[in-house]
Amino acid sequence: MTAKNEAVKEVRLTLVRSLFGRLENHRACVRGLGLTRMHQTVQVKATPENMGMVNKVAFMLKVEEA
After folding, report:
1. Positions of E strands within the chain
2. I need a surface site. Which of 1, 13, 23, 36 has the fewest CB within 10 A?
């Protein structure tokens, strides 16, 4: 957390493509983001770690700013 207590941006992620037949690395990224099934939506903080995972599997996600 920053000393200024700045609000951390969040993104809303929806899984729009199946995990079936995907690379294990891609499945792990999706699970790490908190998504377990199709059309599920979660809100995650826009940290560099999370955004790296989002970039890796962006073709499977719908990403919106929250």
Report:
1. 10-15, 41-45, 61-65
2. 1
